[in-house]
Design a protein that fits this description.
alpha/beta, TIM Barrel, 2 domains, 13 strands, 33% helix, globular
Length: 389
């Protein structure tokens, strides 16, 4: 039996990158289209080295999330990199006052190590269910740029473009600060153009000011036949009671739990009848270990889990789950070629990344299956934090 690899070093590398034709939204700071705009951002890569030369890699996370790594790094150094369940439970305890920040990022890198150690893709370690993953086109937030997503008709045009490319579903991120009337006009425009041809979803991202307006929007979704309504109003997506009352008043299924953390809170939300679809995110919910717990708990209740955002981690996780419907391809826009930095050598997510059937495919290589472009990362490096004995 092979000896497990022992963790010798944990490192976080920061680098700067620039996105073209994008600017941050004034309120949410979400990326929105701006012709000629330039948005400078900080990217982060967490790496875990072992005494056997196997390195686990994770790209993503913000400064707050990765700051939490300091609270668990020294407890992991010198321990088996394969003891993920032990680390998950120990980190939950250590990080209980920090919303478990840092746990997810370390867990994902440990899974990458495990796949490389066993020379197996992560999705096969988890238990392969499929390798082709149906996608939905998830739009960027509406903008006010001519030629962008600036009118209801522009959103409808883009929906038709996505349908022609092969997407079976389309999710709207509407204007963050537009009158409710304009946003409702958008729903009707898209529904008239592609309703019955694509599954339609709406994510107001908690921008609807009141429960009453959320009810009005829900009734419009009922009329058009939306597959789900996600995080509608200003509770922030966390009130199980409020969403149970909304579920009782409309027929469109709700998708909730993006803004609560961990399997316990997700189960509490399910038991309180606060959602129909369950949202899970490896970056927020305890990494791959945590999301798989949520997926299996949801399956026990007969519900589906839908993973938040794209990426190689999500592809591996989705490939090992039966009770899920769509891979989120986003955020995409008809005038923006790339909304993420070019840090992978042979992998990307964008509008044209699907096949003719509207699928992406899990990468069939050991670990998470992707290689980072360290030449790009090092050339743009702005800082490093190292934890080692």
């Amino acid at each position: 039996m092979k000896r497990p690899p022992i963790v010798t070093k944990i490192e976080i590398t920061e680098f700067k990158y620039e996105l073209q034709d994008i600017q941050p939204h004034e309120q949410s700071r979400m990326p929105t289209y701006k012709k000629g705009g330039r948005l400078t951002r900080t990217g982060r890569v967490l790496t875990i080295d072992t005494d056997q030369g196997i390195r686990g890699e994770y790209f993503g996370g913000n400064a707050s999330e990765l700051a939490g790594v300091a609270n668990v790094a020294y407890a992991l150094l010198g321990r088996s990199a394969l003891a993920r369940e032990r680390f998950y439970n120990d980190a939950k305890l250590s990080l209980k006052q920090q919303a478990r920040m840092g746990l997810s990022q370390v867990d994902i890198a440990l899974w990458d190590i495990a796949g490389k150690f066993f020379d197996t893709p992560v999705y096969q370690l988890l238990g392969e269910f499929r390798t082709a993953l149906p996608c939905y086109a998830s739009t960027m937030v509406g903008d006010d740029e001519p030629g962008g997503l600036d009118t209801p008709e522009a959103f409808a045009d883009f929906a038709e473009e996505c349908l022609e490319l092969g997407y079976p579903a389309y999710k709207i991120h509407w204007w963050r600060d537009a009158p409710l009337k304009k946003n409702i006009e958008l729903l009707y425009a898209v529904g008239k153009r592609v309703g019955g041809k694509m599954d339609l979803m709406l994510d107001p991202a908690s921008t609807i000011m009141t429960w009453g307006d959320a009810y009005k929007v829900g009734k419009v979704c009922d009329e058009i036949g939306f597959l789900w309504l996600e995080d509608p109003y200003r509770d922030g997506g966390v009130s199980a009671f409020g969403h149970r009352k909304l579920r009782e008043a409309i027929s469109t299924p709700l998708l909730q739990t993006e803004h609560i953390r961990g399997v316990e809170s997700h189960v509490d939300f399910i038991v309180a009848d606060g959602t129909d679809f369950v949202r899970g995110d490896p970056d927020y919910d305890g990494g791959i270990t945590g999301v798989m717990k949520i997926a299996h708990a949801s399956e026990g209740f007969g519900l589906d889990i839908e993973l938040h955002s794209p990426g190689p981690v999500r592809r591996n996780v989705m490939a090992a789950i039966r009770n899920t419907n769509y891979y989120e391809m986003g955020l995409i826009h008809p005038r923006v070629k790339r909304s993420a930095p070019p840090i992978y050598l042979d992998y990307y997510d964008d509008t044209d990344a699907i096949d003719a059937d509207g699928n992406v495919h899990v990468v069939d290589r050991p670990g998470l299956g992707v290689d980072l472009d360290w030449d790009f990362i090092n050339a743009n490096k702005s800082g490093t934090v190292t934890y080692e004995r």
